[in-house]
Amino acid sequence: MTDLTTGRHRRLAIAISPWAAMTLLTAALALLPIGAIAFTAMANTGSLWGHVVQHVLPQSAWNTLVLLLGSGLIATMVGTGAAWIVTAYDFRGRGVLEWALLLPLAVPTYIMAYAYLDILNPLGPVQGMLRFVLGYSSPREFRLPDLRAMWGAVLVFGFVLYPYVYLTTRAMFLTQAANVTEAARTLGVSRGGVFWRVALPLARPAIAVGVSLALMEVLNDVGASQFLGVRTLTASVYTTWVVRTDLAGATQIALAMLTFVVALLVLERWARRNQRFASNAQSARQMQRQQLRGISALIALGLGVAPVLIGFAGPALYLCVAAIRRFEFAGLSPALMRATLNTISVSAMATLIILILGFAVAYASRLHGGRWSSGAMSVASLGYAVPGTVLAIGILIPVAAFDRTIGGYWRELTGLSSGLILLGSGAALIYAYAARFMAISTGGIDAGLSRIPPAYDQAARTLGHSASGTLFKVHLPLSRPALTAAGLLVFVDCMKELPATLLLRPLNFESLATLLYGEAARGTYEDAALAALLIVAIGILPVILLARTARTIR
């Protein structure tokens, strides 16, 4: 009887715990957009759904599938090959290449598309130089194929997103024991054979994780695909809502896209259902790098430098030159200054809220444990797998209903209009950022809290500290590095987010991302160069953090 009473009191304490309440609230807010999409899409829209199924979904789904397969294949080959080169071989420049291969992460896909459209256009520097070398005088005589095509989108996404595969696969290669590769070599397997027959099969889980992250970024994109003329599911959602003002049709496409995302996740898990990978980490030695000299070293260096040049150095150099020319011609425009201030202020507010909620979710998991807390953490992190355009539609529906309801009551009481409270104030945009990037916050903070031994909690309590005192004097100071890292990653992701910002921003609100999108859509590329350069410069910050973290995995 006493045990039953104790268990009942413990469950009641969990139920009324403020950490548990914040966790459940965060999970509910993450589920609300998905439920709103499903509810709205199931409404009776007459022949609309038939039109969507017949004329919109087939082409958009096919384009999305081809783009995912093509960019995923390039990201896999480039990322895995680069990871093996810097892990298995030693040559001059390898140390710099090790972190430089992460630099494309600083360039959002829409900026990459924007830059290469200007670099490779018929009147751009590349085609102009080729015509000069080949003796042609006009684009009518010689021009490269137009980048606005599926092949262009595949190349852009592949070379921007390969670092996701590189990062996870390199970590796996570094943790593979030397005795495994040495055993293969003693059996007569060449260095290349070790890669294909030993290292690559063991790295399949890491490659799958990296490719999944890259493909999620492809699904989230709206700017690059529109710039490059590829109508994906995400672009169809945006066009149906914004251009045709058809919210019901947009939610139906969004529901189909959510099904697509779930199928992708299930397929990735199914492909690894029977795979088991283990190593004796305590006694493992890292494999020795093979020293390369002469032509072999040059080839290895060239293979490693090529993705950096294509995915970062080329676009970054173009942006620097274009930004300098624009600054010399017109200086810093008021619109750019306002967009910079808007971006920093909204991203900072969203980051603070996301860190608070993420800490609450992670701390509840530490205090209470159990299936309910881990389940709530998983639900709160769902938004990271949902494309920003889809999430924005799911948020718009309940937020707009709330604004209409409050506005109706206020008009009855005062006879005045209250305006759009959540949509007009930017609260809906911050909500979208929180739902989208909560996974980064909870994951990073949970990892930081897990490194604090439970004995520290017990020692603090025996010294007379309350639970709150333990939090402020033990957990917060010791988890500060994890909080800082998570905050930096969340801030930069909020700053770069384009789809949700485009759809949920208040009237007359421009961020750096939306300013760039608008100028590029109008074809005035030079006016957006400064905004793009600012985004890339700030985006380098998490890359530096990742590079410092990667150096510790040795």
Helix-strand blueprint:
Elements: H1 2-16, H2 18-41, H3 48-88, E1 89-90, H4 94-100, H5 109-119, H6 125-134, H7 150-175, H8 178-186, H9 191-202, H10 204-220, H11 223-227, H12 233-243, H13 247-271, E2 290-291, H14 294-330, H15 334-368, H16 370-380, H17 388-414, H18 421-425, H19 427-450, H20 454-462, H21 467-478, H22 480-496, H23 499-504, H24 512-522, H25 525-551
Parallel strand pairs: 1-2
Helix pairs in contact: 2-13, 2-15, 2-16, 2-17, 3-7, 3-10, 3-12, 3-13, 3-14, 5-14, 7-10, 8-9, 10-13, 12-13, 13-17, 14-25, 15-16, 15-19, 15-22, 17-19, 19-22, 20-21, 22-25, 24-25
Overview in brief:
This protein has 554 residues and is an all-alpha fold.
General description of the model:
- This protein has helices spanning 2-16, 18-41, 48-88, 94-100, 109-119, 125-134, 150-175, 178-186, 191-202, 204-220, 223-227, 233-243, 247-271, 294-330, 334-368, 370-380, 388-414, 421-425, 427-450, 454-462, 467-478, 480-496, 499-504, 512-522, 525-551; strands at residues 89-90, 290-291.
- By secondary structure, it is an all-alpha fold.
- The chain has two domains: 11-44 and 332-522, MetI-like fold; 47-232 and 295-330, MetI-like fold (Orthogonal Bundle).
- A two-stranded parallel sheet has the order 1-2.
- α3 packs across α12 (233-243) and α24 crosses α25.
- The longest helix is centred in the N-terminal third of the chain and has 41 residues, at 48-88.
- Mean pLDDT is 79; it is low at 1-10 and 277-283.
